[in-house]
Amino acid sequence: MTPWDTIRKELKRRDEGRRGPSFRRADDPGVEEGPRIDVRPGHDALPRDRREGAAPRRPQRQPWLARIINQWWTRLLQSVYKGSLSEQEAQYESHSTGRDYVWNTVGTSIWGMVFPVLTVVATQLAGAEEAGMFSMAFVTGTLLMIAANYGVRNFQVSDIDEDHSFSSYQINRWLTGIAAFVCGLLYCSVRGYDSHMLTICVGVYVYKLVDGVADVYEGRLQQADKLYLAGISQTLRSVAAIAGFSALLLVTRDLAVASVAMAVATAATLALVTLPLALLETEKSRRWDVGEVADLFRHCFPLFAALFLFNLIESVPKFVMEGALPYENQLFFNALYFPAQGILLAIGFVYKPQLLRLASIWSNPRKRRRFDLVVIAVMAVILGITVGVSIFMEWLGIPLMSFMYGVDFEQFGALPHLMVLAGGVTAAIDFLYAIITVLRRQGAVMRLYAVSFAASVALSLVLVNLLGLAGAVASYLGTMSLLLVLLVMEYARMRRQITRERNPFA
């Protein structure tokens, strides 16, 4: 009998005396009964959580992100099992101004960074010419997104009394989204794109139209004073687009495959996050009505036409360049525009979360002087941000852009500063248009956009063919400046007219 057998027999005798479980040596595979123990000196015979008086081992907690995903997935499945998303009890609070600002800022910032980031990735992994093709597809896709939105977001958010049901808003948005996608395919057919460019366009169009459809659900969350949830939704969708596109392009070096991956990723976020979140966290809507849907088409047509024309005015130089210059110029123009776009996004952070409150202020005639002061204050903020961005571009922005894109932007001279100035003008136009929408006088600006569109076409055709990229930037700045002057004059006329309507003797 070996010493190990003697120890095992003694342990077995003690265990039987205590009427407890039997044990086996940790390195003895021949013994089948009882838990393994380590009988070497300095090692405890019982596991730590089995010792007498020992505290029970705490269960291991899931990582924060995994726990959130599991909770959401469980809630989603339970709601589907019960047969209705809109009849479930809301779980997230409303009237959270701090969260609204934080998440709206995060969501809008990341959404605004999608195009710049993807062009940088495309330039580094596929080259400037391919990145220019992707940029052109994105420009067209943005116009289709504007068409899908149909100018309804500001109208929806300021619909305080819910004169139109959310179901009607949904039907309206899905119809415009489908129509916009069909128009995009027709455009590609007319342009005669090859299969590679066509696939890139389809992937980008689906992504931008998912953006457009998701906007109506995020507008519903804002209408319910849960803008922070809309910001979270927008953040997830934008991150999914960047991750899907970048990962597939890194692996395949094929821009068409990466564009399709981006479309699939964003469609998944719409189905699994945005749509159910809006239905779960807001009151159940009454049934849709054909008359209400038609009413939205009628009332929002001036908004849609104005916004579409505005974005078309912005895009005219790019369309002219597509026929006159190599695709890499699309990349250069958009790269120069991205800092200017930052001004537009920054101003959106300031006023968009307050649209509902601005509508409430305007509805009280005694507070309209305060309303005018808000307008003046925001315009001053736009001027300050524009100056700040221009200083940053001169100090660090241009070298940073050269590093990111692998292109020497010093060669473009004053063009970056002209584009920043155009960005400030564009931000002022965007804000004034939102204010005119709150006044419900949006139909009056259509002729201003038509005049500016005609000027944009004329300037772009002349200057792009004469000066190339510099002509595109100059025509863009000139057209935006003309439109801003016209809008300021029209807004002043509206305010005088409204004052006279309230007090004919004023």
From TrEMBL:
Topology relative to the membrane: Multi-pass membrane protein
InterPro entries per the UniProt record, alphabetical: Poly_Biosynth_Transport
Compositional bias of kind Basic and acidic residues: 1-55
Keyword 4Fe-4S: no
Region (Disordered): 1-60
Coiled-coil regions listed in the entry: none
Record's subcellular location: Cell membrane
Keywords: Cell membrane, Membrane, Transmembrane, Transmembrane helix
Transmembrane parts of this sequence: 101-121, 133-151, 171-190, 256-280, 301-320, 332-351, 371-393, 413-436, 448-467, 473-492
Name listed for the protein in its UniProt record: Lipopolysaccharide biosynthesis protein
